[in-house]
Amino acid sequence: MKTILKANQINLMIKRLAFQLMENYKTEDIENTVFIGLQPRGGIFAERIIKEINGMQYPKSALYGKLDITFYRDDIRQALHLPNQTSIAHNLDDKRVVFIDDVLFTGRSIRAGLDAMLDFGRPKKVELCILIDRRFRREYPIQPDYVGKEIDTINSQKVKVLWKETDNKDEVVLI
Amino acid sequence: MQLTQKNLLGIKDLSINDIQTILQTSTHFKEILQRVSKQLPSLRDLTVVNLFYENSTRTRISFELAEKRLGASIINFTTSGSSSAKGETLLDTVKNILRMKVDMVVVRHSASGVPHFLAKQTNAIIINAGDGTNEHPTQALQDAYSIQEKFGKIEGVKVAIIGDILHSRVAPSNIYLLTKMGAEVMICAPPTLLPKYLKEAFPLIHIEYDLEKTLRWCDVANVLRIQLERQNQPLFSSLREYNLSYGIKKNILHRIDKEIVIMHPGPINRGVEIDSDIADSEQSIILDQVENGVAIRMGVIYLFSGSPIAVNTK
After folding, report:
1. Distance CA A51, CA A31 (A)
2. Domains in chain B, please, with CATH?
3. What chain A residue is nearest to B33 in terms of C-alpha separation?
4. What's the CA gap between B256 and B149, in Å, rounded?
5. How far is B69 from chain A (nearest CA, A)?
6. In chain A, what's the furthest Cα-to-Cα distance?
7. Short-list B169, B183, B158, B188, CA closest to B273
8. How confident is the model at residue B93 (pLDDT cuts 50, 70, 90)?
9. pLDDT by residue (tens digit) across A91-114?
10. Do A77 and B309 touch (CB under 8 A)?
């Protein structure tokens, strides 16, 4: 097991990504933007980013939701997958949507997420914000718009993002 | 973690973990059922036959809706209009249907043990939608789900099951489930409507013959239908007499001066086991039970659909 990112590096990255998002989504656009954390592990990452964005003292707080992709997975019938909570209180018609997830690997989860999202409306635009991008390992034509760190891995390796909320510390490890 | 059973034949065979997994998974389906778009693509490759040898409104429709909303292909079989009228046996019918590439059989039959028989004789996944006086597992699951929704828990809740226990399959399934999950169960009926073996089969339950005492004790009253079609000998003198002694009425609920939750698995005989004003009152969750039935059946079909053993939580 090898540490890729430590807690302070992760925190700086979250701050940077929040600033990058705000740079692209001007204040007046915030009310038309919905940030969506992909369950289960993108949810915590999304909450951290939202906290940063809300801390920037813009007049309105950012719209935020959690989306579970279980029932839309392309491998749903290969094993028994238990679902997680979905909570999206906003209609996504004509909104801007930012998907937030911890690791981008094959791109299959994002494909499923796009499918699941359409049950909540037809957004104007969808972007993708990722903490760890395992580039060169994509199986679907999906690329991130905001990236914490790109890393090169082989398929047999596993990247795990640990969060204080669930794992008692912030750390990214290669297993 | 994994489900212990390939088929849903009865609550008796399920572990506490299985029950919790079904209830937990169904909460997510309930959320999906509140959306404008309720359709999922998950079980596109699954074909289900709803094999109903006995009349049903709620169970059949909610199974059908649950299957459709999960994206499964479905066919409906009812005895009228089928070759059963020409004398084809149950097993022949099922084997013929399965040959047409059907994966799952949802079966309702007036004979106890039919789902178990089919599970032994075929490779299909069998879901029991009510067999004779044996079990009605999805009804018990939706009742438990409704209790959990109302009280935030099942453990410790005092549930009274009142009415025709003798002919009921809902009662045994409910007793198995509630006692496994730590609820307290009281059975209330006239002695002629209680099966003889009851206390031996379910040592944990309380039996009471007095309706008022039962209602004073319980948090929830699950009122069962008097099954007139299954009574070939008179077990009480008249429906009016039953209604006077065991019917849930405004005056008795007023007398006990305590808010209890009223449940009924349907169909209701209004004015027999329950009066209309109570069935339609604020304290009745009868229609919530029906709504939860679809979510529960989605949970059951989803979890039993695959036979994949390992549970992946991501």
Report:
1. 16
2. 11-135+291-304 (3.40.50.1370), 137-285 (3.40.50.1370)
3. A119
4. 24
5. 11
6. 47
7. B188
8. very high
9. 999 999 999 999 999 999 999 999
10. no
Is the CA virtual torsion A38, A44, A48, A54 positive or negative? positive
A160: in domain = no
Q: Name the interface residues of A facing B (CB cutoff 8 Å).
A: 40-41, 68, 70-72, 76-87, 115, 118-120
Inter-chain residue contact B310 with A84, CB threshold 8 Å = no
Question: Which single residue is written with the structure tokens 């929040």?
Answer: A18
Contact B286, B263 (CB under 8 A): yes
CATH number at residue A122: 3.40.50.2020
Contact with chain A for residue B310, Cβ under 8 A = yes
Altogether, the residues listed in chain A come to a count of 175
Closest CA to B138 of B241, B254, B289: B289
pLDDT band at residue A57 using 50, 70 and 90 as cut-offs: low
Structural domain boundaries, residue A54: 8-153
pTM above 0.90, yes or no: yes
Check CB contact under 8 Å for B37 and A119.
yes
B-chain residues near A118 (CB < 8 A): 37
Domain assignment of residue A125, yes or no: yes
Does residue A174 lie in a domain region? no
Q: What is the pLDDT of residues B14-56, one digit of tens each?
A: 999 999 999 999 999 999 999 988 999 999 999 999 999 998 9
Handedness of CA B299, B48, B59, B39 (dihedral sign): positive
Q: Which residues of A touch B310 (CB under 8 A)?
A: 79-80
What residue in B sits closest to A87 (Cα-Cα)?
A: B31
B3 in reach of chain A (CB within 8 A):
yes
For chain A, the domain total comes to 1
C-alpha–C-alpha distance, residues B195 and B185, integer Å:
16
Contact B311 A86 (CB under 8 A): no
DSSP label at residue A168? S
Query: Residues of B numbered 34-73 whose beta carbons fall under 8 angstroms of chain A's beta carbons: which are they?
Result: 35-37, 40-43, 45
Count CA atoms closer than 13 A to B231's CA, side-chain side. 17
Angle of helix B16-33 relative to helix B286-304, nearest 10 degrees? 110
Asked whether residue A166 is assigned to any structural domain, the reply reads: no
**Beta-carbon separation of B306 and A80 below 8 A:** yes
Rounded Cα distance, B35 and A85, in Å? 14
What DSSP line would sit under B138-154, residue for residue?
HHHHHHHHHHHHHHS-S
Phi-psi region of B26 (alpha: psi -120 to 50; beta: other; left: phi over 0): alpha
